[in-house]
Write a structure and sequence with these properties.
Largest interface: A-B, 124 and 132 residues
Distance between the termini of chain A: 63 Å
CATH superfamily of chain B: Cytochrome c oxidase-like, subunit I domain
Shape of chain B: globular
Bound molecules: protoporphyrin IX containing FE, copper (II) ion
Number of domains of chain B: 1
Oligomer: heterodimer
Distance between the termini of chain B: 18 Å
Structural class of chain B: mainly alpha
CATH class of the largest domain in chain A: Mainly Beta
Order of helices and strands of chain A: HHHHEEEEEEEEHHEEHH
Structural class of chain A: alpha+beta
CATH topology of the largest domain in chain A: Immunoglobulin-like
CATH superfamily of the largest domain in chain A: Cupredoxins -  blue copper proteins
Strand content of chain B: under 5%
Helix content of chain A: 40-55%
Chain lengths: 341, 599
C-alpha cells in the first residue's frame, strides 16, 4: 500500500514538473526569448545568490567552528601532543586564512562581474608578475610548513631513548586487542602465530627464556610520565592502533612488525577532571540518558582504525594512565606467562 | 601531422565505400563513432552514478539512526537487513561498492570516457578517434565490467566489502569476511576488464591528440580541455598497469596459494601456510595507481571548467601557459606522492619525510590554477549558465578540499587524522565534489552538442543550488567528526559512548545527503526530457571559440560535412580588442587591425 502511494506521489511530482517546464517554455516563446541562454535578469539573480551563498558559507563555517569545536578531541595527553597540536594550529591557521580570502573573493567576483548587456570583458590573458607572485608566495609558505612539519615528524618518530621505555606488545585480532607486557627484563619473548594453541592465544614461544616473565593483559595500564614503546602485531588482517588522545597511530600488519613510542602525560583521573572533558561528557550523557543508556565515563581508548571486518566498528581497548605507584601495584597483580602456560 | 589530418580528409571522401549502411546495431549499439560512444559512456556512467549515490543514502541512514528500523532497507537489502536493520557486513559492502563505483565507474569512465570521446576529435579538428574500433571495444569492456560489478551485488555471500582499496589479507582470505569470497572474485574480474577499457581508451586519446590535429592546431593552441584529457590519458597508461599487477598478484594469493601479500596469519582456528609476503607491498602497488587516479578524476574536470569559465566569462583563460605547466607539474608529481597514504604503515620515517615533501609541492601548481581561475573571473562579463555555476562551484570545492590536503600531506599531522572522517571530508570535497561538478558543468555545456537540444535552465539552476548547498552540507561537517577522532568505515558510532555527542552532526549530514540525492532527480528529468523535448539548439549557443561548435547540429559521421576547418588562433580570444564580436572562433583568420597575441 505504502509503495503504491509513494509511486503515485512520485508520478504526480514528475507530471507537475513537466507542466511547469512546459508553461515556462511556452510563456518564454511568447516573450520571444531564447529559453536556454541566461538573460540579464538571470545573471542578476544568480549573481545575487552567489553573493548570498558566499556570505552564508563563511557564516556557517564560523557557526560550525563555534558549535562543534568543543566536541573535538581537546587536550593532548602525551609529551609530543602539544607539539603536534602546535603544528596543527599553525597549519590550520594558514589554510583557514587562505580559505577566508579565496572563497569570499570567488563568490564576490561571481556577483560583481555578473554579465550585463553591452559590456565587454577585459582581455587580460596573462601577467608574468602576478603569476610569479602566486607561485612564489605559496612556495615560501609551504617551505615553512614542510620544514616545521618534518622536524615535528622526526621528533615523534625518533623519540629519545634516554629514559628506558616500557615495552608493551599490542596484539590485534578480529575483533579485539590484547596487551603483553615485557615483564621484569623489559624484553618480549618471541612469538609466532603457528604456536597459537589452547590458552596460548598470542602464540608466545614458551621455550624462549625471555617470555617467562611476560604478562598478558586485557587492558593497558601506563605510568604517567614514563615513555612506553608499543610493539604491534596482528594475527589476521591489517588493523590500526589509533590512540587519538595521545596523537598516536600505527598500523598492525600481519607479518610486518611495527612500533610507536610516546610518553603519556595526563592520568585518566586528571583527564576526567579536565573542565572541557567534563562538559563534553555531560553532553554525551545527556544524549545517552535520552536513549536510556547507562552513563559514559571517560577512558583513553585504542580504537581500530583500519577496516578489518564486520565488527571493525567495535574493536577497542581502554588505556588507563595512572601514577607510578598505582602502576607498580597493578603490574604486580598480572600473571606471567610462566604462571599461566 | 597536418599531412595525416589531410590524408584522413581524403578518406572521408570515400567514406561510403568503407562504412556499412547505418542500421540500428551499428548506429546505437556497436557504434565506432566517437560521438555515439561518448553518449554511451555518459548514460552508463549516469546509471552507475544512480546506483552509487543511492548506496550512500542507504548507509547514511544507518549512520544517522543506527538503532532505527527502516522498511526500505529490508526492501532493498533483503536478508542483509533483517527487520530493517542493516547487517555490518552489508554496511561495509555498500561503502566499498559505493567508493568503487564513484571513483572508477562514474568519475573515471563516466567523466573521462564521455568528454574525451566527445571533445578530442571535435576540438582538435579530427574526423574521429585514431581507432574507432578500439574505441568501441573500450566502451564494451567498460560495459562488461559494469555488468559484472552490478552482478556482484547479488552473490550469496555479498559483494566485495574490504573497502575500495581492498587491502589484503582482508580481501585475500574468504575466511576474513563474507565479502571476500565470490564477491571479491567478481570485483577483481570487473576491475581487470575496467583497466583494459581504460587502457584502450587512453591509448586512443593520446594517439589522436598527437597525430590528428587539424592544420594550424599547434599544441599551444589546444584548448585546455584537450590538454587535460591528454595528460589524464598518459597518467592512466602509466599507472593502471601497476594496478593490474597488484590485482594479479592478489588473485594468485587467493587462488594459487602464493604468499605475495600474506604472512604469519592465524584465522578461523588455524595457522595458514602463507609465509614471507607483505601487505605493505600491495599498498605500494595500489597507491602507485591510487594517487594518480585522483588526478585522472580531477584533471578532466579542471579541463572542462577551464573551458566553461573562459567561455562564460567572455574572457581568455588567465595564464594559459601557466595552466598547461601546472597540469604537467601536477601529473608529474602525482607519481611520486603515493606514500602519503601510508604514513602510518610503519614505513621508514625518512621515506615519510620524502613523501611529505613531494606531496606539499603539489600545492603550488594547484594554487596557481586556483588563482588563475579567480583572475579569469575578474572583470569578466559572466554569463551565469548552469554550467558556469557548477564551474564556480568546482573552484570553490577544489580550494576547500585542496587546503585540507596540506594538513593530510604532512606526515606528522596525518598520524592523528589518517583514516578518520577528516579524510573522508577531504577527498570527497576535493575529488568527489569537484569532479562531479565538472561532470555536470560538462553535461550542461555540451548537451546541445550531444543531443542538438538545450537543457532547461530553470531546472538547471534549481539543481545546482540544491546540489551545491547539500554537497557542502554533507561533507563540511565531516571535518569536525574527524577532529573528534571518528574513524571511517565504522558501521555505527554509537557502540561505545565516546562519540554520542556527535549524533546530531550525523543526522544533519544524512538529511543533506538525502536532499542532495533527491535533487539529482531534477537533473535526470531535465536530461531525458530535454533530450526529446528541449528547444532546438543553435549551432553555437554559447558563442564559443572552439571547433566543436563549427560542426552542424545534426551529428554526421566525420563531423564536418566539407573540409575540416583550419585553425588560426588559440581558443581563448574572447572580448579581444579590435574585434566587433566578443568571441573569435579558432577557425577565424586574424583580422585586419587585430593585434597578434602570440598564440
Ligand atoms: C551523495 C553523495 C555522497 C555521499 C553522501 C557520500 C558519503 C560517503 C560516506 C559516508 C562514505 C563512508 C566513509 C567511510 O566510512 O569511510 C563514503 C565513502 C566513499 N565515497 Fe562517498 N559519498 C558521496 C559521493 C561520492 C562521490 C561523488 C565520490 C567520488 C569520488 C565518492 C567516493 C567515495 C569513496 C572513494 C569512498 C571510500 C570507500 C571506502 O572507504 O572504501 N563518494 N561516501
Ligand atoms: Cu578494524
Ligand atoms: Cu594520494
Amino acid at each position: 500500500m505504502n509503495g503504491i502511494l509513494i509511486a503515485a506521489v512520485l508520478v504526480l511530482a514528475v507530471l507537475a514538473v513537466i507542466q511547469i517546464v512546459r508553461i515556462y517554455e511556452l510563456s518564454s516563446v511568447i516573450r520571444e526569448e531564447d529559453t536556454a541562454l541566461p538573460t540579464p535578469e538571470d545573471n542578476d539573480r544568480q549573481g545575487f545568490w552567489m553573493l548570498v551563498f558566499g556570505i552564508a558559507f563563511i557564516a556557517s563555517f564560523f557557526a560550525m567552528v563555534y558549535a562543534w569545536m568543543p566536541d573535538t578531541l581537546g587536550l593532548p595527553a602525551s609529551e609530543h601532543g602539544p607539539q603536534y597540536d602546535n603544528l596543527w594550529d599553525i597549519s590550520m591557521g594558514i589554510i583557514i586564512v587562505m580559505f577566508l580570502i579565496v572563497q569570499p573573493v570567488l563568490f564576490y567576483f561571481a556577483y560583481k562581474y555578473r554579465g550585463t548587456a553591452g559590456r565587454k570583458a577585459s582581455y587580460f590573458e596573462h601577467n608574468n608578475k602576478l603569476e610569479l607572485v602566486w607561485t612564489v608566495v605559496p612556495a615560501v609558505i609551504l617551505a615553512v610548513l614542510i620544514l616545521y612539519g618534518l622536524s615535528t615528524w622526526s621528533t615523534i618518530m625518533n623519540p629519545s631513548q634516554e629514559n628506558e621505555p616500557i615495552v608493551v606488545e599490542v596484539y590485534a585480532q578480529q575483533f579485539k586487542w590484547t596487551a603483553r607486557y615485557a615483564g621484569k627484563d623489559n624484553d618480549l619473548g618471541n612469538a609466532n602465530v603457528r604456536l597459537i594453541a589452547g590458552t596460548n592465544a598470542l602464540g608466545v614461544d614458551t621455550l624462549d627464556a625471555k617470555s617467562a616473565d611476560d604478562q598478558v593483559t586485557p587492558e593497558i595500564y601506563l605510568p604517567v610520565g614514563r615513555p612506553v614503546v608499543f610493539k604491534f602485531r596482528s594475527q589476521d588482517v591489517i588493523h590500526s592502533a589509533y590512540m587519538p588522545h595521545f596523537r598516536a597511530q600505527m598500523n598492525c600488519v600481519p607479518g610486518v612488525p611495527t612500533q610507536f613510542q610516546f610518553t603519556p602525560t595526563v592520568t585518566t583521573a586528571d583527564m576526567r577532571k579536565d573542565a572541557d572533558m567534563v562538559a563534553k561528557v555531560e553532553r554525551i550523557n545527556a544524549v545517552r540518558a535520552k536513549a536510556g543508556k547507562e552513563p559514559y565515563v571517560f577512558d583513553y581508548l585504542i580504537l581500530c582504525n583500519k577496516i578489518c571486518g564486520a565488527a571493525h566498528y567495535n574493536m577497542q581497548m581502554p588505556i588507563v594512565v595512572v601514577s607510578e605507584e598505582e602502576y607498580a601495584a597493578w603490574i604486580k597483580e598480572q600473571k606471567t606467562v610462566a604462571e599461566t602456560l | 601531422m597536418a599531412a595525416e589530418a589531410h590524408a584522413h580528409d581524403h578518406a572521408h571522401d570515400h567514406e561510403h565505400h568503407d562504412h556499412p549502411a547505418p542500421n540500428f546495431w551499428n548506429t546505437y549499439v556497436f557504434s565506432t563513432d566517437h560521438k555515439m560512444i561518448s553518449k554511451q559512456f555518459l548514460v552508463t556512467g549516469m546509471f552507475m552514478g544512480i546506483v552509487g549515490v543511492f548506496m550512500s543514502m542507504l548507509f547514511r541512514l544507518q549512520l544517522a539512526w543506527p538503532e532505527k528500523k527502516f522498511a526500505i532497507l529490508e526492501y532493498f537489502l533483503g536478508k542483509w537487513a533483517p527487520d530493517g536493520v542493516m547487517d555490518p557486513n552489508m554496511y561495509l559492502a555498500l561503502v566499498t561498492i559505493h567508493g568503487t563505483i564513484m571513483v572508477f565507474f562514474v568519475l573515471t569512465a563516466g567523466l573521462s570516457g564521455t568528454f574525451s570521446n566527445l571533445l578530442i576529435p571535435l576540438q582538435i579538428g579530427a574526423r574521429d578517434m585514431a581507432s574507432g574500433f578500439l574505441n568501441m571495444l573500450s566502451y564494451w569492456f567498460f560495459f562488461a565490467s559494469s555488468v559484472i560489478m552490478i552482478a556482484s551485488l547479488f552473490v550469496e555471500t555479498g559483494p566485495a566489502s574490504g573497502g575500495w582499496t581492498i587491502y589484503p589479507p582482508l580481501s585475500a582470505l574468504p575466511q576474513a569476511m563474507p565479502g571476500s569470497g565470490a564477491g571479491m572474485t567478481l570485483w577483481l574480474i570487473s576491475m581487470t576488464l575496467f583497466i583494459v577499457s581504460s587502457l584502450l581508451g587512453s591509448l586512443n586519446y593520446i594517439v589522436t591528440v598527437l597525430n590528428l590535429r587539424t592544420k594550424g592546431m599547434s599544441m599551444t593552441r589546444l584548448p585546455l580541455t584537450i590538454w587535460a584529457f591528454l595528460v589524464t590519458a598518459i597518467l592512466g597508461v602509466l599507472s593502471f598497469p601497476v594496478l593490474v599487477s597488484a590485482v594479479l598478484l592478489l588473485m594468485f594469493d587467493r587462488m594459487l596459494g602464493t604468499s605475495f601479500y600474506l604472512s604469519d596469519i592465524y584465522m578461523a582456528g588455524e595457522a595458514l601456510h602463507y609465509q614471507g609476503g607483505s601487505p605493505v607491498l600491495y599498498e605500494h602497488l595500489f597507491w602507485f595507481l591510487g594517487h594518480p587516479e585522483v588526478y585522472i578524476i580531477l584533471l578532466p574536470a579542471l579541463g572542462i571548467t577551464s573551458e566553461v569559465i573562459a567561455t562564460s566569462s567572455r574572457k581568455p583563460i588567465f595564464g594559459y601557459r601557466a595552466m598547461v605547466t601546472s597540469i604537467l607539474a601536477i601529473a608529474f608529481l602525482s607519481f611520486i606522492v603515493w606514500g602519503h597514504h601510508m604514513f602510518v604503515t610503519g614505513m621508514n620515517p625518512f621515506l615519510g619525510s620524502v613523501f611529505t615533501f613531494t606531496t606539499l609541492l603539489i600545492a603550488i601548481p594547484s594554487a596557481v590554477k586556483a588563482f588563475n581561475y579567480l583572475t579569469t573571473l575578474w572583470k569578466g562579463n559572466l554569463q551565469l549558465t548552469p554550467a558556469m555555476l557548477f564551474s564556480i562551484g568546482l573552484v570553490s570545492t577544489f580550494v576547500s578540499g585542496g587546503l585540507t590536503g596540506i594538513i593530510l600531506g604532512d606526515s606528522a599531522l596525518d598520524i592523528n587524522v589518517h583514516d578518520t572522517y577528516f579524510v573522508v571530508a577531504h577527498f570527497h570535497i576535493v575529488m568527489g565534489l569537484s569532479a562531479i561538478f565538472g561532470l555536470f558543468a560538462g553535461v550542461y555545456h555540451w548537451f546541445p552538442k550531444m543531443y542538438g537540444r538545450m537543457m532547461n535552465k530553470r531546472l538547471g539552476y534549481a539543481h545546482f543550488w540544491i546540489t551545491f548547498v547539500s554537497a557542502y552540507g554533507v561533507f563540511f561537517p565531516m571535518h569536525f567528526l574527524g577532529l573528534a577522532a571518528v574513524p571511517r568505515r565504522y558501521y555505527t558510532n554509537a557502540e561505545f559512548g565516546m562519540f554520542d555527542n556527535l549524533q546530531d552532526i550525523n543526522v544533519l549530514i544524512t538529511m543533506f545527503a538525502i536532499l542532495g540525492g533527491i535533487a539529482q532527480l531534477l537533473f535526470l528529468f531535465n536530461f531525458f526530457y530535454s533530450m526529446f523535448r528541449g528547444p532546438k539548439a543553435s549551432q553555437n549557443p554559447w558563442k564559443s571559440n572552439t571547433l566543436e561548435w563549427t560542426t552542424p547540429v545534426e551529428h554526421i559521421h566525420g563531423n564536418w560535412p566539407g573540409e575540416i576547418p583550419e585553425v588560426h588562433r588559440w581558443a581563448y580570444d574572447y572580448s579581444k580588442p579590435g574585434l566587433s564580436e566578443d568571441f573569435a572562433p579558432q577557425s577565424m583568420p586574424i583580422q585586419d587591425g587585430e593585434e597578434a597575441t602570440g598564440h
